[in-house]
Recover the amino acids of this structure.
């Protein structure tokens, strides 16, 4: 099972790409863009850089700042460079091994290609087996290599046409950036499950990124989101677009619930404003008498603000998050594992003698929720009413979120009342699917992890094994 310290579902990765019509320090800009996307993946980082002739790749396990120290950044500062792609990774298919770090590269009749991918292809295992039968050799165990090898296979097509052809073959939720020595390509699945946007700098450089926050980090102005089913590319003749697959928008609701940064905008909808509206909807649907509204920082803050506004119950920071608690803490004993939450969160005096409404974005297994409730009780909270700004997670995600197997999701095997007893709250309630739809507005949403309705297909035989490509 792969969860972060706060028992949250984990997004697979973030992608970044930049094309400049003239030489530019694209390695440094990619570094900044990847750093802005660090929340989307903290296991590995990498980038490719080209100047039209040379093609450099650097990647490794670790955070962006760990992988790209001053020495590596200087190495990537290729003279005359004008194209780069970057990637930050969580492993949802393929183990957390160095050879699975991205970008991946292949040499083909189209020259050397680099690819960075966010999401999952639900038919990758099937296509991979067909290619293995044809004698294709794979170097990694992740599904990204399936796509890049498939593109290389179409030797009679140019890079854009070959990529469009493969887009039509792959199913699932995905956003991808691809580069060779001359162009940068971006594409998005026809359901738009995974996000991708376009920006431009004043010097003319085009930027593709998983979130608008990466555009801001490199002084690029937001142009628009890549449309579901669209392929875009930047080259010496500017920016181009091709509608490859008809658009059926169902972006992932968790982008607004949890994944995207609070200052981001996804498909034209502000993350923070959507979270505030979720809190308002939650207060309308699940009211309770209490003295203060307390968020689980940081992802519960927006919803807690909304809940407070709608309920007229004062908002306060009843939990302090230690900004220096890193992700590398090792817990060798049960006691140490139980102390991990206390390393990150501690209660404030605001909760003493108060009836608390505790707001969090999700409950996956419930273990961390139980510890947080107990923290508040130990600090003197007289009541703890748990409110969640997502519906119960009952199904696994096949589109790039690591929510584990269904049997490991507490809401798939327990009633809300059983979960309440498990976490020790006085009351427990979740927002409804209609509440999420109302809060986000805009396009239709992928709510598969709440209702099991998968808009972009499922793997053969409904395979829930997140490491299905490791054969």
């Amino acid at each position: 099972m792969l969860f972060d310290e706060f028992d949250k579902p984990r997004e697979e990765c973030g992608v970044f790409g930049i094309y400049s019509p003239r030489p530019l320090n694209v390695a440094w800009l990619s570094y900044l863009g990847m750093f802005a996307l660090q929340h989307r993946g903290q296991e590995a980082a990498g980038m490719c850089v080209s100047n039209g002739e040379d093609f450099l790749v650097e990647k490794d396990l670790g955070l962006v700042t760990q992988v790209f120290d001053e020495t590596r950044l200087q190495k990537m500062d290729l003279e005359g460079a004008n194209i780069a792609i970057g990637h930050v990774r969580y492993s949802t298919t393929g183990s957390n091994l160095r050879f699975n770090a991205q970008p991946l590269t292949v040499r083909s009749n189209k020259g050397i290609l680099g690819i960075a991918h966010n999401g999952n292809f639900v038919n990758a295992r099937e296509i991979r087996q067909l290619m293995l039968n044809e004698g294709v050799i794979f170097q990694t165990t992740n599904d990204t290599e399936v796509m890049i090898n498939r593109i290389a296979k179409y030797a009679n097509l140019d890079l854009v046409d070959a990529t469009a052809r493969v887009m039509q073959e792959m199913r699932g939720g995905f956003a991808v950036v691809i580069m060779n020595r001359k162009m940068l390509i971006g594409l998005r699945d026809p359901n738009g499950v995974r996000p991708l946007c376009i920006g431009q700098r004043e010097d003319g450089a085009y930027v593709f990124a998983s979130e608008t926050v990466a555009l801001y980090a490199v002084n690029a102005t937001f142009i628009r989101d890549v449309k579901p089913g669209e392929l875009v590319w930047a080259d010496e003749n500017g920016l181009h677009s091709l509608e490859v697959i008809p658009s059926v928008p169902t972006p992932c609701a968790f982008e607004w619930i949890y994944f995207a940064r609070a200052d981001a905008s996804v498909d034209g909808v502000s993350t923070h404003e959507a979270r505030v509206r979720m809190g308002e909807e939650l207060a309308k649907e699940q009211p309770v008498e209490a003295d203060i509204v307390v968020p689980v920082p940081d992802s519960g803050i927006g919803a807690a603000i909304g809940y407070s506004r709608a309920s007229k119950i004062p908002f306060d920071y009843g939990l302090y998050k230690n900004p220096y608690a890193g992700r590398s803490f090792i817990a060798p004993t049960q006691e140490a594992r139980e102390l991990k939450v206390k390393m990150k969160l501690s209660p404030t005096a605001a909760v003493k003698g108060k009836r608390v409404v505790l707001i969090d974005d999700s409950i996956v297994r419930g273990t961390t929720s139980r510890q947080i409730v107990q923290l508040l009780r130990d600090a003197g909270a007289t009541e703890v009413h748990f409110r969640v700004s997502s519906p119960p997670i009952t199904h696994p995600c096949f589109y790039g979120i690591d929510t584990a197997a269904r049997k490991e999701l507490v809401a798939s095997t327990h009633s809300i009342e059983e979960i309440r007893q498990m976490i020790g709250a006085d009351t427990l309630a979740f927002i409804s699917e209609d509440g999420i739809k109302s809060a986000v507005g805009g396009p239709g949403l992928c709510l598969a992890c709440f209702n099991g309705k998968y808009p972009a297909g499922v793997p053969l035989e409904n395979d829930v094994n997140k490491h299905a490509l490791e054969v």
Notes: The first strand starts at residue 10 and ends at 11.
